[in-house]
């Protein structure tokens, strides 16, 4: 997949089959649109192109007036995760348009003329029934269909049934993760929710109780960290090896009062140094809520149970 981050650098294609959107999560609804994009592109022996935006439009424009609570935007994917997912799904060209206030002012006419026709060289569009574009989201499928001939564009709509059948939305997935409902989130995503960070130093207590825990520092500020709790995960090292692991997101009430939240993972089948390495966690199952135990022995006994439950969840 060719990744182009500056529209001025995009190689005009002339016969491109295009879809566009923010695609946060690249969930099963998005995957349907992308599968159709690839099908149409293959049938025309033409490149499949995705236009996406970064940063997320809501970060630039603020929350919709009707939903002020959406101000604290959290994202399912880092840009790198989104890029990797789109590449996996057979996209040939990814154009990442820097989303600015100025770009948000483009009319749907500007958007079609400048971006779709002049920059990308679109011939066919594949879009979800509810896709909106241009200033104030004024452009949509009906506008495109009415003007398709004038633009020399063929427009294919993914019907409402196909997108809604799965009942998925990025918002629903965010809600599920904030409640620790990994099963629902993963079902809607079509893959295990990932979280990547760098292993940093902690209090060196873990090793003294027989469960060293790699502490993860997540650098991407907007990445959604699931609810506090204990989870079964796969831990994938930068070298690509996968380890069954148990994860704690919490404030460790057994150890002390009012500690800062940490993300700590014990790899069940590993012994070695992970400091400064990048680690990706793939969430598989919620195990339990974080508890305050009566001392380290009680916590250690619980960790042995967590390890058993982790193996069962990952089996
Ligand atoms: C799977 C798992 C479950 C945990 N559950 C709890 C818990 O329920 N309550 C708690 O206070 N700490 C819990 N911890 C956190 C431990 O207290 C923590 O690993 C210990 O403080 C080691 O800290 P260190 O990495 O700074 O040395 C858990 C850790 C792991 C890996
Ligand atoms: N099975 C394992 N799971 C997690 N970390 C491990 C494991 N084996 C060794 N380590 C190493 O031990 C460190 C964690 O030990 P710990 O005593 O909890 O120290 P810290 O408080 O700095 O996290 C990890 O960062 C990693 O380098």
From TrEMBL:
Residues 188-315 form the Riboflavin kinase domain. It comes from the Bacteria. The keyword Aminoacyl-tRNA synthetase does not apply. The keyword ATP-binding applies. Pathway: Cofactor biosynthesis; FMN biosynthesis; FMN from riboflavin (ATP route): step 1/1; Cofactor biosynthesis; FAD biosynthesis; FAD from FMN: step 1/1. Belongs to the ribF family. Catalyzes the phosphorylation of riboflavin to FMN followed by the adenylation of FMN to FAD. This is Riboflavin biosynthesis protein. It comes from Hymenobacter antarcticus. The lineage of its organism: Bacteria, Pseudomonadati, Bacteroidota, Cytophagia, Cytophagales.
